[in-house]
C-alpha cells in the first residue's frame, strides 16, 4: 500500500472537490439545456402564430443567465483552490479562505440539509501551507456534516489568539460530537503540516495553528 503523505491527501481532497463540482456543473448545464429547448419551442410557436410570450421568454433568459453566473462562481472557487498549491507557503486572508472552503463543501452540506455560515473578522492574515490548511478544513467539515442531524447549522469562526489562529466549528446543541472523532489519519497528516492541534468539546471543535509559518517548519 502506498504510504500516505500530506501531498497525497491534498490530491485526494482535490479529487473529491472536483467530483462534487462536476455534478454541480452538470446540473447547471441541464437547466440551461432545458430552458434553451423552451426558447426553441417558443421560436417555433412564433413562426406559426406570429406571437411570442415575452414574459416567459424573459423568465427563461433570466434563468439561463443565473445558471451561467452560478457556473462561473463554481469554477472560480475551484480555480482558487487549485492555485493554493502554487507555492509551499502562501499568504492569504482567513475570512476569504474559510468562505472558499465552505463554498467548496456546499454540495455535501446541501445533501445533508445543513446550513453553514462563516463568522470571521475581515482583516486576519495568515501565511501557511495553504492547500494543506484548506484541505484540512474541508475534511473537517465533511466529518462534521456526517455527525450533524438534518437541518442543523454549522458556524465556522475564525479569530486570533496571540500569535495563533483559532478556527472553531460550532454545531447546534441537538448534535453531539463523538469523542475521539478528530483527527483521523488524513486530518492528522495535514494538521502536522500546518502545525495545528484539535480541541474537541460536546458541540465545539477548535483548530489552532500558527498565524505565520516559515520554510523551516
Task: Fill in the keyword field for this structure.
single chain, Heat Shock Protein 90, 5-stranded mixed sheet, two-stranded antiparallel ribbon, elongated
What does this structure look like?
The protein has 217 residues and is α+β, with helices and mostly antiparallel strands. It is built from six helices and seven strands; from the N terminus they run ααβααββαββαββ. The strands form two sheets. A five-stranded mixed β-sheet has the order 2-4-5-7-6. The longest helix has 44 residues, at 6-49.
What is the CATH architecture annotation of the largest domain?
2-Layer Sandwich
Q: What fold name goes in the CATH topology slot of the largest domain?
A: Heat Shock Protein 90
The first-level CATH class name of the largest domain: Alpha Beta
Q: What is the β-strand count?
A: 7
Low-confidence stretches: none
Q: Percent helix among the residues?
A: 40-55%
In short:
With 217 residues, the protein is α+β, with helices and mostly antiparallel strands. The chain has six helices and seven strands; from the N terminus they run H-H-E-H-H-E-E-H-E-E-H-E-E.
Amino acid at each position: 500500500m502506498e504510504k500516505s503523505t500530506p501531498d497525497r491527501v491534498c490530491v485526494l481532497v482535490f479529487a473529491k472537490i472536483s467530483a462534487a463540482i462536476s455534478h454541480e456543473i452538470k446540473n447547471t448545464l441541464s437547466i440551461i439545456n432545458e430552458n434553451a429547448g423552451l426558447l426553441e419551442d417558443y421560436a417555433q410557436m412564433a413562426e406559426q402564430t406570429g406571437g411570442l410570450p415575452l414574459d416567459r421568454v424573459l423568465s427563461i433568459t433570466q434563468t439561463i443567465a443565473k445558471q451561467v453566473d452560478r457556473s462561473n462562481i463554481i469554477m472560480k472557487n475551484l480555480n482558487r483552490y487549485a492555485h493554493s498549491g502554487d507555492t509551499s507557503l502562501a499568504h492569504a486572508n482567513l475570512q476569504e479562505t474559510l468562505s472558499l472552503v465552505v463554498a467548496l463543501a456546499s454540495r455535501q452540506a446541501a445533501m445533508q440539509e445543513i446550513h453553514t455560515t462563516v463568522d470571521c473578522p475581515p482583516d486576519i492574515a495568515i501565511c501557511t501551507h495553504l492547500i494543506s490548511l484548506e484541505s484540512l478544513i474541508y475534511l473537517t467539515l465533511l466529518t462534521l456534516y456526517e455527525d450533524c442531524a438534518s437541518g442543523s447549522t454549522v458556524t465556522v469562526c475564525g479569530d486570533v489568539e496571540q500569535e495563533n489562529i483559532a478556527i472553531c466549528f460550532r454545531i447546534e446543541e441537538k448534535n453531539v460530537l463523538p469523542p475521539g472523532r478528530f483527527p483521523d489519519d488524513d486530518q492528522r497528516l495535514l494538521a502536522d503540516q500546518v502545525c495545528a492541534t484539535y480541541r474537541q468539546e460536546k458541540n465545539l471543535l477548535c483548530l489552532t495553528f500558527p498565524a505565520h509559518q516559515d520554510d523551516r517548519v
